[in-house]
Amino acid sequence: MPLSPLLFAAALVAVQAPADPEEKAVLAAAQAFFDGLQAADPAALRAASLPNIAMMALSPKPDGSVEVRRFAFEDSFGKGIKPGLREWMWSPTVVRRGPLATVTAPYEITRDGKTLHCGVDIFTLAKADGAWKVAGLSWTAEPDACPELRKR
Hints:
Blueprint: H1 5-16, H2 21-38, H3 42-47, E1 49-60, E2 66-72, H4 73-76, E3 85-89, E4 93-97, E5 100-111, E6 114-128, E7 131-140, H5 146-150
Parallel strand pairs: 1-7
Antiparallel strand pairs: 1-2, 3-5, 4-5, 5-6, 6-7
């Protein structure tokens, strides 16, 4: 019997939870961003982020090339979010040096329980005023990559 995505993610987090409190805080900041997305709450997303974060999405095109879209937070999530989105990551890798950190992980995003795509998220975070905040977010949006990425 396959695990539900939520149970699968919880099992991975339980196994791979970092011991370092700063790494836990970095992952919690990335999760706060996901939580704001799921709640369709731009204010929660802003609270998890520094002002005016840069975002970049890379998507494969049918001809084999890649579409690169760069935009500011306010141009997408700041104007409101349609409810029903849920995104989660697994097997995150945290790299941290002082007040700078990155989180890289495969992810899946669904709307109303239907998979939209999978890919790799790269969060850049900064510790400002004692709290980790998302400073930038880049991702691949790969509709056919879910089976491969779920194996990681």
